[in-house]
Amino acid sequence: MRFLSSVDMHCHPWMAMVILPLLLLLLAPLAAAETWPFCGDSGKFESNSTYEANLRHLSSTLPKKAASSSTSTTLFATDTHGNAPNIIFALALCRGDSNASACEGCLVTAFQDGQDNCPNSKDTTVYYNGNPCMLRFSNKNFLATTVNDKILVVPSMEMPLITSTRADFFRFLLFTLLNSTAESATDSSWMFATSRLDISSLPTLYCLMQCTPDLSTDDCADCFKPYYQLTLKYMDGRKGGQILGTRCSMRYEIYPLGDTMLRISELASAVPAINNTLPPVTVYPQSPVSQATIQEYHGM
Ligand SMILES: *[C@@H]1O[C@H](CO)[C@@H](O)[C@H](O)[C@H]1NC(C)=O
Ligand SMILES: *[C@@H]1O[C@H](CO)[C@@H](O)[C@H](O)[C@H]1NC(C)=O
Ligand SMILES: *[C@@H]1O[C@H](CO)[C@@H](O)[C@H](O)[C@H]1NC(C)=O
Ligand SMILES: *[C@@H]1O[C@H](CO)[C@@H](O)[C@H](O)[C@H]1NC(C)=O
């Protein structure tokens, strides 16, 4: 196991306390991915209302529509249903290396999870740990722009990957990882890329980045721009993390995230200066070795 072999256990006796329960959990069945809902502030709809009926219609059509777009390997759909004031705008995206049946199932669940977590909310976004799919529906026409919204930052572990003496170098690695993966994702027709970076004595880093495939190359690159800064700000030195948005997402870990499409072999020449005008984000509580992290680890 790469994770174990790449960590110097002698220097970190506490690792045993972490890894032992982790190994035990590897034997447990894989639980469903943790749900990360965003309840919007667009008000509530009444039970038995036209809005509810329109939402029910979308929940039965949009997952199929996204899944059937797999002929073009995008697993993505947007739709609009109903008339003002009960019109609903919706967007659904599955992870780029998912398949039609897994995608449809994930989105059906997402509609249900959205209503369970944000009862009667007119504007709801649902993300999952590992981002197998994401869903947003709203009474506001968020489809009219490519603005990335509802950004969730989830640093995956409390424990640092490296000591402070190597922090500058780690920032270089992180920027290289994200920059190269973003270049690859924006070049791909379905706006998706996975990568690995193993040019140092640190553990190999794996990354996955994806935009909604309706974005242009430039829009996708713009969507990722604040992610470099957010990663350096919230995940510096950490073993992994995720940034989820309605238009693009990023995750890096020290274990593979599906089949690796790109092997990064060159370090970036410089890390751009920190831009302090970052978009508003929600940072998920940072718990040491959360259950979610362990489940994801098991799922690799
Ligand atoms: C919704 O409609 C069902 C079936 O017609 C009815 O039983 C229920 O009481 C209604 N709920 C509300 C809140 O109006
Ligand atoms: C689709 O993906 C799911 C989850 O990764 C997998 O269990 C299933 O076998 C896949 N189905 C096909 C047809 O490839
Ligand atoms: C990668 O970094 C270079 C140098 O900072 C920059 O010019 C380029 O736009 C970046 N690529 C992406 C996709 O962000
Ligand atoms: C900083 O970020 C904002 C918003 O993303 C952007 O408008 C601005 O041009 C950036 N400034 C620099 C110096 O990159």
UniProtKB/TrEMBL annotation:
Residues 33-142, 152-257 form the Gnk2-homologous domain. This is Gnk2-homologous domain-containing protein. It comes from the Eukaryota. The keyword tRNA processing does not apply. The keyword Signal applies. Keywords: Repeat, Signal. Pfam families: Stress-antifung. It comes from Triticum turgidum subsp. durum. Residues 1-33 form the signal peptide.
